[in-house]
Design brief:
The complex is a heterodimer.
Chain A: H1 2-23, H2 30-62, H3 74-96, H4 99-122, H5 128-153, H6 156-166, H7 175-191, H8 199-202, H9 206-211, H10 216-238, H11 244-255, H12 261-286, H13 293-314
Chain B: E1 2-10, E2 16-24, E3 29-33, H1 40-47, E4 55-60, E5 63-64, H2 70-74, E6 77-80, H3 92-98, H4 101-104, H5 110-122, H6 138-152, E7 156-160, H7 168-185, E8 188-192, H8 196-202, E9 205-210, E10 213-219, H9 220-223, H10 226-233, E11 239-242, E12 245-248
Parallel strand pairs in B: 3-8, 3-9, 6-7, 7-8
Antiparallel strand pairs in B: 1-2, 1-4, 4-5, 9-10, 11-12
Classes of the chains: A mainly alpha, B alpha/beta.
């Protein structure tokens, strides 16, 4: 019952922040301000939810609370893609390619990459999840090395464009793309909705899950695809946000006193959305855009990550 | 009956188990004994579908363990491995409730709750039921996991070294619980044991393994024999009859 109230409280917090965000300093210009801000809120809510959901599920699948799905190298693939486009075709081509095409290309490439990674690894029996992570980390490092090499050679003006892509931004979200991203994410979650009931058991680890009758390999494979689609979509929408998932998942575990995903997941999603909106408010109103949200998030997230590691070390 | 036919699993050079052929009778306690690395745990993991086999076939009550739906099998056979690290913070009560998952898929009915209650009482865990697992001693945790297996309430129960971490009192308690499960409810128990005196006093049949093969199998009375044990452990083990139990004195 207490968790029930906590969820309500979190929902109220997220809604309250949304209301503040939509109405603060509007100075009567509703027709101009509201649609713009609503679009931003939409992007924030979608990204926050997708990242929270994918991180919690990923941590359950790997039985590890300090991992995030960005470890499989999707963020660096996203950066590499944009660097290569700018490097090969120049900044003029970059602006010539429509936003829709860029979005579609990013999503397709990232999903294809994770699909390839999983396909290759599911042929190998055994402790594949950690092996998968390792391969993902190696690929990620490889991608970012190529990216930084190419960035060295870029014209400074072109580099500015790349730099723009390095950090998540909610400021220029196209409403068509937002709708497309929302549809893809909802589809990914609902297609695999039936696997949801297995998550609590999978958290016990492979052997217990198999003993309790969970079709383990199939479920893990499907949930990983769902995670990959969600991460790819949200990254393509706003750019890479590395630490957000780790941060909100672990805060959610602390806040609710249960292991059940039916409570943990909504809590993580609400915390994620609330902290993104709150963070964006701080960036816009206090720092007046002199810094970006992902810089703040990476700072807080990185610090929290260190605390987590030190704590894990002690136990 | 558990029917193991020509099962082979290769690990590296010469390791694994080779062409294992064994039938485990229903309604009995069968102990797997043998030196370290004999393949006892491997055999148990293959029987319970935790590990894929390279060749051969295993069926439990006619259900082929590779082809049968995992959920169906989970209502017939349960397995508990020797290491049970869990990354989730759970109380004993919550852990034992997981044992009902194959029956209720997470929504506990009143019958499920009753089974959980019985399992906790069987293992004498009532005073600890709301304690978190990470705060318990190794033995208490082991009993909690066995309670989970009991709550799963399957015809066949496979246990990999269930007496690990347990003191004498609780080892005897668990063996007695298993005895009751077979005698009163007709359950079939297969377990890996290291202390052959537990095997001698509480099991009906013994399967002895060595270097990935079955050395010999038979009723406990025939198996607890100096000549047989010499072939398994390469040790001279005198056997004394104490209060009707054959006790092996292996402290030479």
């Amino acid at each position: 019952m207490r968790d029930h109230w906590k969820l309500l409280l979190l929902a109220a917090l997220a809604l309250g922040l949304t209301a503040v965000f939509l109405t603060i300093d509007a100075s009567g210009d509703w027709d101009y301000v509201l649609p713009r801000r609503a679009r931003k809120i939409g992007a924030i809510a979608l990204t926050g939810a997708a990242i929270a959901y994918s991180t919690v599920v990923f941590q359950t699948l790997t039985n590890n609370k300090i991992l995030t799905p960005s470890l499989i190298g999707l963020d660096s693939l996203y950066l590499l893609l944009h660097t290569v486009i700018i490097f090969v075709f120049g900044s003029s081509a970059f602006t010539a390619i429509g936003k829709h095409e860029q979005f579609a290309l990013s999503v397709i490439l990232m999903v294809a990459f994770s699909g390839l990674l999983f396909r290759m690894l599911f042929r190998i029996q055994g402790r594949y999840l950690y092996f998968l992570l390792l391969v993902g980390i190696v690929c990620g490092t490889f991608f970012s090395s190529i990216s930084s090499f190419l960035q060295m050679l870029l014209d400074p003006n072109d580099f500015l464009l790349v730099q723009d892509k390095m950090f998540a931004s909610f400021n220029n979200v196209n409403s068509d793309i937002l709708l497309m991203a929302a549809l893809i994410s909802i589809a990914a979650v609902s297609v695999f909705y039936r696997e949801f009931k297995y998550l609590d058991v999978i958290a016990l680890g492979r052997e217990h899950a198999v003993n309790l009758g969970v079709p383990y390999d199939r479920t893990v494979r499907r949930m990983l695809i769902c995670v990959a689609v969600l991460v790819a979509t949200s990254t393509a929408l706003v750019g890479p946000i590395t630490f957000l998932g780790l941060l909100v998942a672990n805060v959610a575990y602390r806040v609710v006193g249960t292991y059940r995903h039916s409570t943990v997941l909504p809590a993580a999603i609400l915390i994620s959305v609330a902290s993104l909106i709150g963070g964006q408010l701080v960036v816009e109103r206090i720092f007046t855009f002199s810094t970006s949200l992902s810089v703040i998030l990476n700072f807080i997230g990185g610090g929290y990550f260190l605390i987590l590691m030190l704590k894990e070390d002690k136990t | 009956m558990i029917d193991v036919r020509n099962v082979t699993k290769r690990y590296g050079a010469g390791q694994g188990i080779h062409d294992i052929h064994v039938r485990i009778a229903k309604g009995r306690i069968t102990s797997l004994i043998g030196p370290n690395g004999a393949g006892k745990s491997t055999l148990l993991s293959i029987m319970s579908r935790l590990l894929p086999m390279d060749a051969g076939e295993v069926s439990i009550d006619g259900l082929n363990v590779v082809q049968t739906d995992s959920e169906r099998l989970a209502r017939t056979v349960s397995i508990l491995k020797q290491t049970n690290d869990i990354n989730v913070r759970l109380t004993i009560q919550q852990l034992v409730e997981f044992g009902r998952f194959p029956h209720s898929r997470g929504r506990l009915t009143s019958e499920d709750k009753q089974q959980v209650e019985e399992a906790i009482q069987y293992m004498e865990l009532e005073p600890l039921r709301n304690q978190y697992l990470d705060k318990l001693s190794g033995g208490q945790r082991q009993r909690a996991f066995i309670a989970m297996v009991l709550a799963q309430n399957t015809e066949y129960i496979l246990l990999d070294e269930p007496l690990n971490n347990l003191d004498m009192k609780h080892s005897v308690q668990i063996m007695k619980v298993l005895r009751r499960l077979t005698d009163e409810l007709g359950r079939t128990v297969v377990l890996v044991l290291h202390d052959i005196n537990f095997a001698s006093c509480y099991s009906d049949a013994i399967v002895a393994m060595k270097e990935g093969r079955i050395v010999r199998e038979g009723p406990t009375n025939e198996m607890i024999d100096s000549a047989v044990l010499k072939g398994v452990y390469d040790m001279d083990i005198p056997i004394h009859l104490i209060d009707g139990n054959k006790i092996c004195v292996y402290f030479s």
